[in-house]
Amino acid sequence: MPLDILVGAQWGDEGKGRMVDLLSVQADYVARYNGGDNAGHTVNVGGQTFKLHLIPSGIIHSHTTGVIGNGVVINPLILLNEIQMLRQAGVSINPDRLHISHAAHIITPACIAEDRAREQARGVDKIGTTLRGIGPAYTHKANRTGLRMETMLNSEEFAQATQADIEETNQTLNRLYTDQDISPMDATAIANEYCQYAQQLSPYIRDISLILNESLIKKRLVLAEGAQGTLLDLDHGTYPYVTSSNTISAGALVGLGIGANWVRRIIGVTKAFQTRVGDGPFPTELGGKGHVDDPEQVALAGHLRGTGANPWDEFGTTTGRPRRVGWLDLVLLRYAIRINGITDLTLTKLDILSGLESLKICNAYRSVNSKGQAEIYKDLPMGPGNLTGVEPVYEMLPGWQQKIRDLTRWEQLPAEAHAYVLRIQELSGVPVQMVSVGPERSQIITLT
Ligand code: IMP
Fold this sequence. Notes:
Layout: E1 3-8, H1 16-23, E2 29-32, E3 41-45, E4 48-52, E5 65-68, E6 73-74, H2 76-88, E7 98-101, E8 105-106, H3 109-122, H4 134-143, H5 155-176, H6 187-201, E9 205-206, H7 208-217, E10 222-225, H8 249-256, E11 263-271, E12 274-276, H9 295-305, E13 324-326, E14 328-329, H10 330-340, E15 344-348, E16 358-368, E17 374-377, E18 391-398, H11 415-428, E19 432-436, E20 444-446
Bound molecules: inosinic acid.
């Protein structure tokens, strides 16, 4: 059996967690390959809501084995808390059910302190990171100064390395950010604390590439669970407003140590509209920059975002920040399909569009060239890094008033919802396999 890869086709928060949950029914292994606890995957099962940041959400199914790949950066305290939370909820977690790559890098308090200091120093140009130490952990990895999980297996070496890491960061922060009042971290106390984490996590540390490849040969199904989304990819996203890992499908191969020959499906998840948390360009944003006083846009944004009263409203799982919202952007979706090689799409949160009179889909951008002439383009001429100055060109479609949460079959959806989904399929050139109409496991409809 092969490798299936699930990726976010937008700026993260597409509802990947619940799709992983659904696809895990057939999977033997569910593996995270990138990012760290900046991710927040929410899964609702039988009235219980699980919010997972590091452990793959597919582990909630008792037949699966969870894997945290070498491409992930791990905050050990968050991981241990998550293990405990799952155990308390009745999910069995032990070294036979969860494997952590020996080559995954560790997020220490030094990484978190650096993330904070850098963001503060950037001022108005801040990226709007989750302040979880993600960027610095990947920077240390690329610098070849990072701490890997395998270091935990030798407690003396690990204590020394952690202490040295903290001491060095104390000096760096003190030297670089003189205008910030940063108290030095207690390197000895942190090293001791981290040694305790190492003791608890050591039994889980394995060569996950070996395990996964042997399993693929035995015809087991591996599901790779992407975190964040295509437009936050370090190389292919809206740079510099991106995360520090490769979120796209190719990241799964690097982040798990699996060859491209095993890939079968690449499932892209997109919301029926667009959201983004943090700073950076967002051409179809409603009520954003330049439109904050437009009551119509603000009301529409409120409709899409929700009030925050429900767990599915558009407020960050990790940070609680209200998400920026807007119309679905097909220029960016086509880009995500190309960069990932997406073979089929899942469209989430279709139910949120109920009650809107009309809907818009952005199918092209308009911009003015250096000669002052207007140009229309359907594909990004130079990637998504520079989207300033582009204006969305919209298609209008009729909305529907009917609530669709309780519907279970494609034929039951209103004609306008069919038209909306099918138009997305047509404009994207990729089949939409499923739509979600609510947050529960059962509220997913397969297209017929
Ligand atoms: P970092 O990953 O914390 O460095 O943040 C970099 C950018 O990625 C910021 O705009 C974050 O808001 C965004 N980001 C990181 N993780 C997620 C996620 O899981 N969902 C949505 N946005 C994310």
